[in-house]
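[job 4471] stage=fold_predict status=RUNNING
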Amino acid sequence: MADIYAIIESGGKQYRAAEGQILLVDRLKADEGAKVNLRAVMFRDSDDTVLDSGKLEKVKVEAVVSGHERGKKIRVFKYKSKKGYRKRQGHRSELTRLEVTEVKMLTRKPAKAAEKREAGGSKPDADAAAAEIAAEKPAVKEPATGRQPTEKPAASKAPAKMPAAKKKPAAKKPAREKKES
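[job 4471] inference complete, writing structure tokens
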């Protein structure tokens, strides 16, 4: 049973998550002590490996937020020789410590929260839902352009070409006067 793990995605990065493991991920908006469901990208059991997105929806990876921390300070120094340019910056990442409590493959897909909230649990007919939405929307009015709505809009014409600019003849230089000797 120790060979069960999942590769999860959090904050654009992937982590290997096994039951009882502690992960340090980019800051999550959950409070301390809250349970968080993580999205599995791959699931590995002692029998098989699951990569198919349809089957990955059945994988449940649950973790508890242990705390929020700040990472080690990273110092950034930019320098250009012989130019007098120096710039110093520092950065500390905001992190969340997660304790993985459960990694398992369910027998069926978990119900979505939106479907749970619906009364009766069944989805309404798609045509009936479309009719209700159309009834709620106000009628779209034509924009006021000063024309009758039956008129067709004028066809757009390409702009007329400008005549080529005529070149002026070069100015003639006055003739040199001959010197009399």
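[job 4471] summary: The beta strands are 5-10, 13-18, 22-26, 35-44, 49-50, 59-70, 74-80, 85-91, 94-105.
[job 4471] exit 0
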